[in-house]
Amino acid sequence: MSGLGLPVTVVLTAGQAADVKQAEQLMEGIATEVVIGDKGYDSDELVEAIQAKGAEAVIPPKKNRKVQREYDRDRYKDRNLVERFFSKVKQYRRVATRYEKTARNFLAFVHVASMMILLR
Asked: Counting CB atoms within 10 angstroms of each CB, which of 18, 19, 55, 70 has the fewest?
């Protein structure tokens, strides 16, 4: 997502795939200063990849971490922009109920819904 809460890249994965596994792919080729994610993205490998790009990782650590990492709590509040975007996309019934049976067609409708939100 951009700083305005608009999508930059969309990747479709299987339902059982972990989001954290796609994070590096989503960042490829995109200049970033800050990467904000929820606790599901708390992985040493991802944080190191973000820092290697010269960006700041704003990802709260999981409670079961032995060494708790610091993160910018004020910046983390901007994560609600992502949640708002997903809420808007789910207003499009074709996306919310996944009418399309093939991944290609479903992703196409996700792109159409994203464009409709961008055009508002």
From this structure: 70
